[in-house]
């Protein structure tokens, strides 16, 4: 059987994220804790495959109840067209007490950039999840010349190389195995864990979803959702 390099590569990648991103996780977690304790909600956006990161963070078992996935109706089909995000943001309920996580590996496309800029204009704090070294090597596709990491209040680097795919393989002209979902998910779970720790240290009970597949989970969640229900299911 031929060697499968995925496991070793992922182990090394996760060690790098763990060893280099603790300070950034701490900064972002403090922002999330402050937001939720002050009545805000945690929102997340990712276009295309980056939406997997937004789903990892919001409205799921083990995550914060005051959380919402910003669902752009075209599903990121117009990610590279300037003005789409600006127009969409006119309809999105974002408030100054909120924190918005925007996920984009390249950080160069107009849609996630304009959503980050639009949320910031409304007073919210922005956490970017991006491939920082790769993004720095790219030029913006937005007329502002900015990339996502340049408009964020905190940046989590998923350490993914340019192009997302990571492994060379003999007989294949392109690299295989996009790894960004893996390190993005780890970063966002580490953010959730640390934010919950901060809340507990301040004497605040973190509002965390239970699985609806365990007895009593649905009722537990619905009871806590009452405090936020006017916001969780709006655009």
Description:
This protein is of the alpha/beta class. The chain has nine helices and seven strands, in the order ααβαβαβαβαβββααα. The protein has a single domain, classed as Glucose-6-phosphate isomerase like protein, domain 1 (Rossmann fold, 3-Layer(aba) Sandwich), CATH 3.40.50.10490. A five-stranded parallel beta sheet has the order 2-1-3-4-5, sandwiched between helices. A two-stranded antiparallel ribbon has the order 6-7.
How far apart the termini lie comes to: 50 Å
> So what's the oligomer here?
single chain
Q: Output the structural class.
A: alpha/beta
Number of strands: 7
Give the fraction of residues assigned to helices: 40-55%
| Biggest sheet descriptor | 5 strands, parallel
What is the assigned CATH homologous superfamily?
Glucose-6-phosphate isomerase like protein, domain 1
Number of alpha- plus pi-helical segments: 9
Shape: globular
Layout of secondary structure:
Elements: H1 6-20, H2 22-37, E1 42-46, H3 51-57, E2 67-69, H4 84-88, E3 99-103, H5 110-121, E4 125-130, H6 132-136, E5 154-157, E6 165-167, E7 176-178, H7 180-201, H8 217-225, H9 229-232
Key terms:
two-stranded antiparallel ribbon; alpha/beta; five-stranded parallel β-sheet; 235 residues; Rossmann fold
Brief characterization of the structure:
40% of the residues lie in helices and 12% in strands. The chain is an alpha/beta fold and 235 residues long.
């Amino acid at each position: 059987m031929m060697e499968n390099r995925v496991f070793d590569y992922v182990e090394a990648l996760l060690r790098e994220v763990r060893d280099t991103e603790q300070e950034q996780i701490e900064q972002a977690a403090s922002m999330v804790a402050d937001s939720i304790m002050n009545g805000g909600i945690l929102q997340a956006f990712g276009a295309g495959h980056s939406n997997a990161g937004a789903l990892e963070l919001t409205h799921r078992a083990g995550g914060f109840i005051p959380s919402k996935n910003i669902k752009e109706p075209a599903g990121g089909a117009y990610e590279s067209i300037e003005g789409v995000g600006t127009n969409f943001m006119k309809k999105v309920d974002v408030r100054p007490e909120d924190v918005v996580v925007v996920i984009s590996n390249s950080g160069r496309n107009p849609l996630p950039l304009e959503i980050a800029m639009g949320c910031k204009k409304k007073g919210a704090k922005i956490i970017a999840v991006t491939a920082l070294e790769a993004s720095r090597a790219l030029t913006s596709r937005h007329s502002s010349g900015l990339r996502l990491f340049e408009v964020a209040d905190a940046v989590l680097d998923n350490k993914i190389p340019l192009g997302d795919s990571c492994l060379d393989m003999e007989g294949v002209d392109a690299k295989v195995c996009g790894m960004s979902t893996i390190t993005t998910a780890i970063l966002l779970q580490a953010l959730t864990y640390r934010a919950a720790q901060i809340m507990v240290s301040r004497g605040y009970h973190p509002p965390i979803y239970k699985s609806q597949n365990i007895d009593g989970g649905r009722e537990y969640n619905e009871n806590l959702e009452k405090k936020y229900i006017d916001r969780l299911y709006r655009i």
